[in-house]
Amino acid sequence: MQYTFSDKVRSLAPSAIREILKFTSMPGVISFAAGNPAPEAFPVDEVRQITAEIMRDNPIDALQYSITEGYTPLRDTVSAYMRSVHHTGTEQDGLIITAGAQQVMDLTCKSLCNEGDTVICEAPTFIGTLNAFRSYNVHLCGVDMEPDGINLEQLEHAMKTEKNVRMLYTIPNFQNPSGITMSLEKRKAVYTLAKKYGVIIVEDNPYGEIRFEGETIPNIKSFDTDGLVVYAGSFSKVLAPGLRLGYAIAPKELLSKVIVCKQVADVHSTILAQMIAHRFMTEYDFAAHLQRIRKIYYHKAHLMMDLADQLFDGKITYHPVQGGLFLWCALPDGVDMMDFCTRAVQQKVAVVPGNAFLVDESLPCQNFRMNFSTPTDEQLEQGMQILGRLSAEL
Amino acid sequence: MQYTFSDKVRSLAPSAIREILKFTSMPGVISFAAGNPAPEAFPVDEVRQITAEIMRDNPIDALQYSITEGYTPLRDTVSAYMRSVHHTGTEQDGLIITAGAQQVMDLTCKSLCNEGDTVICEAPTFIGTLNAFRSYNVHLCGVDMEPDGINLEQLEHAMKTEKNVRMLYTIPNFQNPSGITMSLEKRKAVYTLAKKYGVIIVEDNPYGEIRFEGETIPNIKSFDTDGLVVYAGSFSKVLAPGLRLGYAIAPKELLSKVIVCKQVADVHSTILAQMIAHRFMTEYDFAAHLQRIRKIYYHKAHLMMDLADQLFDGKITYHPVQGGLFLWCALPDGVDMMDFCTRAVQQKVAVVPGNAFLVDESLPCQNFRMNFSTPTDEQLEQGMQILGRLSAEL
């Protein structure tokens, strides 16, 4: 049988990161290529206790069908938390529980975009989202990143000139992969432009809660008085990614279509996982837990940055971060980035070639991404020593 | 803000069943409208024990990111089970774990169909699948059901004359809502037609394992030597729907696109739920569990059928079933079906109007669907008494 695939998926390929991750299963390879949270950041004892309580007190609720919007006590808890702690979401907004923030990207794009419509993305940006958008055959338009966030002139030019611009996708905090945090001034300017051109902002914030230094900057959604912003949150970095839980806070009318799309996609998210998240947020000290994991990431980020300062000798530079999971590195001009990444993996350190994060992977790119949350301290030390030797050869 | 939705979701509405289910939360309403498995069919003690063991032995595996294809031990277990017990799947096929069988429908349609392509469905059929297909703006073509399955003449006519026919969707066992099981002869004829016209068969089999009487009929996938069949299985009726676990067995090349679509949809399904299903299938007597739940459904189905025989006086007829969760009833000619369903809910018994299951809901329909798995025996008795009184008034 010769299979004919739809136009939207025909050219869709597994993410380049996944291809590189294959090397990480080779014996002895140190992976700076993943994006997994540190396992020591998982509240294992608490989840063990909670799970036992749920299976003792509410087993039928945990096993039966539930509603598409999500487990009501969890929705109420997250909604109240985001309003009180982050001023995010109003009476005009609804909240639904999703299968990670990834599903917010998938369903929002499906709800708003026809094939050929334009979605503006930061360049570089998260490959999982790029592929979600590609899977609806939209036209992706990348806008360059600056140290304080997206380039506003390019952004307005794109909004003005591209055809049927429906969404702007942004990760304002500790952007994956660049590590860049958008300034408050730019957040407001981006909102103003989106309003002017009638573009929905999809604000993806998986890393906001793991800021380990500096001052929190308000979410774009916190000044959304016009119903322009779909805010995507995630439990993957603050609880556990294996539970596959995220959420969308969005204007009710827009969310109603996203809910119908979720209903036909998976009916609802795993209810046991939702009940675990609810009990974790309400019966334990969530703020103290966040403080604990921020310390873990502070330590790991600074270990990697300190090693980079010592070992890269200024040849390989990076964007310093105050949160998130990644360091975005730049090779000197004239160095072949893909060749460097290949030599690194041959020396048993896996990093991700930066072009994987571009709308157009064929564009020139001198960057690669390193993750500091997954490796142990010892692996961080060893891997950075190897990259340091490669750096010295440049 | 005025929202502009994509063409594919603009006319998409929550399922009519969900609207009717709203009545079921009214005090005192007996619901024959749901499709929930009987809670007494859940292996609560086993899941409680398993969950405690996972959180004791493998908590990090249960909480960390995993691979899109699914938890490898579960994939291997289901694959071996389906091959040995149901002769379903070969070396040419792969198996992925999904968020219920619902996700198989969503991702297969996304992978194979452009907007406007034709998908052939049984008429009536499962509304969740109809809406999944509608959400990709395909052209749905309904083919009438006969007591032994889909009408073959209409099916061939549709395959021959409709534009870009990409898929045929069928539920061969205890079809939802009609309760009809396709004969072996028709299964073979359907396969031959699909091969002749190059159409992919999506075989949805959520109820096959809960046959409580009669002989099992081989799955269409069991004679798929040409790579034509995507088989969708589910844990919702044999374990617990709240876990949101299903699977697809399909030709590897076709499955590779479905996997990429799943990667961008939700990364992977909840790993704790997958580990629970794996341990349940391997550490407990799965066959004995199936025997136990078949007895539950045998009892409930026969209770409802016996009451219908006693109380409907032949005015309201139904298709007798040997499995599944539903009875499909027909009102006498001249009776207004929607009026009957409305009067039933006013009398505090909710059933689902049959037109909800049609490709074109505006077509004339004398049917309604009743579920026997969710109500208690007492509710079955009370509800059927009420419907019996309404029947007597016809």
Architecture overview:
The structure is a homodimer of 394-residue chains. In chain A, 44% of the residues lie in helices and 16% in strands. Chain A has 394 residues and is of the alpha/beta class. Chain A has two domains: 7-43 and 288-392, Alpha-Beta Complex (Aspartate Aminotransferase, domain 1); 64-283, Aspartate Aminotransferase, domain 2 (3-Layer(aba) Sandwich), CATH 3.40.640.10. Chain A has an eight-stranded mixed beta sheet with strand order 2-9-8-7-6-3-4-5, sandwiched between helices. A four-stranded antiparallel beta sheet of chain A has the order 10-11-14-13. In chain A, strands 1-12 form a two-stranded parallel ribbon. In chain A, helix 6 (100-112) crosses helix 10 (252-266). Chain A is globular, with a radius of gyration of 21 Å. The first copy, chain A, starts with 6 loop residues before the first helix and ends with a helix.
Count of domains of chain A:
2
- pLDDT < 50 runs, ≥5 residues of chain A: none
- Percent strand of chain A equals 15-25%
Average the pLDDT over all residues of chain A and give the rounded result. 95
The helix/strand class of chain A is alpha/beta
Q: What is the element string of chain A, with H for helices and E for strands?
A: HHEHHHEHEHEEHEHEEEHHHEEHEEEH
- At CATH level 3, the topology of the largest domain in chain A is Aspartate Aminotransferase, domain 2
Q: Describe the main β-sheet of chain A briefly.
A: 8 strands, mixed
CATH class of the largest domain in chain A: Alpha Beta
Oligomer: homodimer
The count of β-strands of chain A is 14
Specify the CATH architecture of the largest domain in chain A.
Answer: 3-Layer(aba) Sandwich
Percentage of residues in helical conformation of chain A: 40-55%
Radius of gyration of chain A: 21 Å
Shape of chain A: globular
Q: Largest interface, and how many residues on either side?
A: A-B, 82 and 82 residues
